[in-house]
């Protein structure tokens, strides 16, 4: 973690003051795999599935992030409020 005296909001870059309204955002996104992979609709089945993954051009890290992604960030009060508003869907038009 960043030295407290140099801590900045990840989103806007504002300096986070000691004892101020500072927040820690922790987010984990995990694929909701139901245990089922349909390979019956392709003639070669599993071989074709593996070939498509290899041809995707995605790195191992990018493939892993499609299944499990975690981040930790420090935020100021204003950015925290904006993120909470977004997550609640309150910034949607109409």
Tell me what you see in this structure.
It is a single chain. The chain has 94 residues and is α+β, with helices and mostly antiparallel strands. It has one domain (4-87). The chain is built from 3 helices and 2 strands; from the N terminus they run E-H-H-E-H. It has helices at residues 46-55, 60-67, 77-87, and strands spanning 22-30, 68-76. Strands 1-2 form a two-stranded antiparallel sheet. The model has no long low-confidence stretch (mean pLDDT 86).
Briefly characterize the structure.
The protein has 94 residues and is of the alpha+beta class. The chain has helices at 46-55, 60-67, 77-87; strands spanning 22-30, 68-76. It contains 3 helices and 2 strands, in the order βααβα.
């Amino acid at each position: 973690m960043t030295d407290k005296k140099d801590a900045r909001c990840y989103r806007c870059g504002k300096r986070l003051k000691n004892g101020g309204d500072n927040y820690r955002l922790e987010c984990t996104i995990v694929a909701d795999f139901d245990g089922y992979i349909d390979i019956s609709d392709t003639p070669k089945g599993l071989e074709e599935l593996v070939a498509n993954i290899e041809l995707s051009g995605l790195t191992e890290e990018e493939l892993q992030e499609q299944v499990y992604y975690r981040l930790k960030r420090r935020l100021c009060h204003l950015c925290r409020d904006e993120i909470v508003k977004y997550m609640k869907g309150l910034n949607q038009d109409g």
